[in-house]
Design goal:
alpha/beta, 7 helices, five-stranded parallel β-sheet
Length: 158
C-alpha cells in the first residue's frame, strides 16, 4: 500500500473511473491529492487567437482571458470537490485538492515531485493513431518524465 497518492481529474467520466481504484492502493492512513490542471494565460491566448490576428483585435482581450481562466478554475474546483466526495465515501481519510496551471503532463509530473507522491493514478482516454500523434498524451508524458514513481493508468474502455 502507498502512503501518498496523486490522482488526476478533468471532470470527465473517463477520469472518474480511476477513483474506484484509489482506496485499494492507498494505505488507510495515506494521503491522496486530487489534481486538476487548467490553462495559464499564455496557453489560453494561444488557443483563442487565430494565426494572423493580434491581441488588440478584440479576439483575446485581457478581460476575456481572465474570465476564461476563472471559469476553468471554478470547473476544476467542482471536479476536485466531486472526486474528494467519492474518495471520502470510499474510506479515504486524508484528501487534498490542488489546482495547477500550465501544460498538463508537465504540471502533473511537477506536482508528483512536489507532493512526494508514492504513486500517480490517472485515466487514459484511449486515443491511438493520428489522433494521439496530433493531440498528444498526458499519460504518456507522465510515464516518460516521472522517474522513480509508479504510475497506474486506467483505460476505461477495456
Amino acid at each position: 500500500m502507498f502512503k501518498s497518492a496523486l490522482v488526476t481529474t478533468d471532470g470527465s467520466e473517463t477520469a472518474a473511473t480511476v477513483l474506484s481504484h484509489v482506496a485499494h492502493v492507498t494505505a488507510p492512513d495515506g494521503k491522496v491529492t486530487v489534481v486538476a490542471v487548467i490553462d495559464d494565460a499564455g496557453r489560453l491566448v494561444a488557443r483563442m487567437t487565430p494565426a494572423g490576428f493580434e491581441m488588440g483585435a478584440g479576439i483575446a482581450t485581457g478581460d476575456l482571458v481572465d474570465q476564461a481562466i476563472a471559469a476553468q478554475r471554478a470547473g476544476a474546483e467542482q471536479n476536485i470537490a466531486a472526486a474528494k466526495a467519492v474518495l471520502v465515501a470510499a474510506g479515504v481519510k486524508q484528501v487534498d485538492g490542488l489546482i495547477l496551471s500550465g501544460i498538463p503532463g508537465e504540471a502533473i509530473v511537477q506536482a508528483a515531485k512536489d507532493t512526494k507522491a508514492d504513486i500517480v493514478l490517472m485515466a487514459t482516454h484511449g486515443r491511438s493513431g493520428i489522433k494521439r500523434a496530433v493531440v498528444g498524451s498526458v499519460a504518456e508524458h507522465v510515464l516518460r518524465h516521472l522517474e522513480g514513481v509508479p504510475v497506474l493508468l486506467i483505460n476505461p474502455k477495456g
